[in-house]
Amino acid sequence: MWRNLHVAVVLALLPAMPAIAADETGIVLSPGAGLDKVQAGCAICHSLDYIQMNSWFQDRAGWEKTVTKMVKVMGAPLTPEDVAVVVGYLEEQYGKTPPAAGTTGG
Amino acid sequence: MDRRRFLADSSATLAGGLLIPRVLLSEEMVSGLPAGAVDTGILNALPGKRELIKRSFRPPNYETPVALFREELTPNDAFYVRWHTGVPDVSVAEWRLRIGGPGVKSPREFTREELRRRFDAAEVVAVNQCSGNRRGLFSPHVPGVQWGYGGMGNARWSGVRLKDVLEDAGIAPGALEVVANGADAPLLEATPDFVKCLPMWKALDPDTLIVFEMNGEPLPAWNGFPARLVVPGWTATYWIKALTDLTVVDKPFDGFWMKTAYRVPKGMFGASGFESQDTEQNSPITAIKINSLIVSPAPGTALAAGRRAEFHGIAWDGGSGIARVEVSADGGNSWKEARLGRDLGRYSWRQWRWDFTPKAAGPLSILARAFARDGSTQSEKLAHNPAGYHHNLVQKADYDVA
User: Fold this and answer.
1) Alpha carbon distance B85, B182 (integer Å)
2) What is the rounded distance in angstroms from the CA atom of residue B388 to the CA atom of residue B349?
3) Do the chains contact at B55 and A53, CB–CB below 8 Å?
4) Segment A45-59, tens digit of pLDDT
5) What is the complex's ipTM, to 2 decimals?
């Protein structure tokens, strides 16, 4: 129970508390379709530098394995539709090679 | 509830001050890491720590820059940080260590002062090395925290023997493993709590300790205050931080972090010494493999032809002790023995030094390899495994001679 409460509290406070999030808000992921789902689904439990740190060497199957583990084992609150979107984003932006300049939309 | 309070993130110290992350100087960089890990591996100071290389902000995973390994014992404020979930903020007044389970005769509960009073003091100098240290150097890369060389440190650990505490509670017939849990807990109910276990023989080893201090000072919160397990010779995954519960069980513990994570392919690295956790396919990672590191001069440093250069390094293994370290300046055709530093015990790393005068200008590569007293030596070919453990390739450090 308290854990669920905690999630709610953390999520509610994130934008308002620079002391908790200042460094993390310095993390800028590549813009692209699905970024919102990545931010909502992954940043509950860990900073998003985990994604950058693990690039660029994973293909679609690699990211699929990671995201599936996050959902099935770690309990990330992503629907199957969300998983498809998140995996697509990761493959596109943090796959085997950095996205070519000008193709990321930003 | 108190122990569930989590420390504010590192940025607390930065909130009103400088927010400019310092990127690494070239001599602090490690070649071979994924590009994304290089980009995000900035220097950043957690409260009470000096600037370390940030791998991830939350949970905090920070490694020690190699230059700081020149010291025999790694200072507490330079010691690497590794958490799976939030860092617990534990008050000593409320902290208790509970000992129970079907494998003990009389369950116990102690305050820190009761532990200190009741049991003999014990200490050990030991290397604490993350299982995934050097994962970032795997080729091909494997996912996980992309550690360079600094997911490790050497310290003098002081506390009481785990053996004495367990025997005080009385070990029942059939006791098989000691399950250890700390105050850290995941945010989501569904996430597996970080819990590990030890076989009885390792738990009863007189060098396996419950410690309150490192290097004569209380453990920093980042390193497990107020008490953590010290399991000399085994990788740091077993050194449970902010320890609260020891449960002696009579059946193999099957938590996620034992059964599924921290595994190596069966037989790839020899016997695990932990039969109750072995399966047909794999084994838990256990003892540290023989390894060494060239600390200075940092690779890439300019050396002068005709001028003596002093090479300093460290070597360590899983507890047999270091027999010798050899260095080569000709690509491994010939090897010279380095001079070993003080012996602080078989679980400590051993410093070494080798002097060499490069004759001519041009590129120079130095290789270093350590030999343990058990006869083992470092790998020449990477034993690639899915989780990226036990990277102990013979190191090649490149320099420019002018």
Assistant:
1) 11
2) 22
3) yes
4) 999 999 999 999 999
5) 0.92
* 3-class state of residue B306 by DSSP: coil
Task: Please check whether residue B265 lies inside any domain of the structure.
Answer: yes
State the residue for tokens 């596109």. Answer: A92
CATH number reported for the structural domain that contains residue B345 in this entry: 2.60.40.650
Alpha-carbon B281 to chain mean position: 25
Q: Verify that B48 and B101 share a domain, yes or no.
A: no
Region B9-17 average pLDDT: 38
Instruction: Answer whether B14 sits within 8 Å of A7, measured CB to CB.
Output: no
Q: Is B20 exposed, middle or buried (0-12, 13-18, 19+ CB in 10 A)?
A: exposed
- What span, in angstroms and rounded, lies between the C-alpha atoms of B128 and B126? 6
B374 and B315 in a common domain: yes
Contact A37, A86 (CB under 8 A): yes
pLDDT in tens, A15-71: 333 333 347 878 999 999 999 999 999 999 999 999 999 999 999 999 999 999 999
Torsion angles phi and psi, residue B256, rounded to 5: -55, -40
Which positions in chain A touch B185 (Cβ < 8 Å)? Answer: 3
Residues on chain B touching A45 (C-beta within 8 angstroms): 85, 186-188, 191
- Confidence category of residue B23, pLDDT binned at 50, 70, 90: confident
Please report residues of B whose CB lies closer than 8 A to that of A66. 143
Q: What pTM was computed for the model? A: 0.92
CA distance A97 to chain B (A): 10
Amino acid at B280: E
B332 and B392 part of one domain: yes
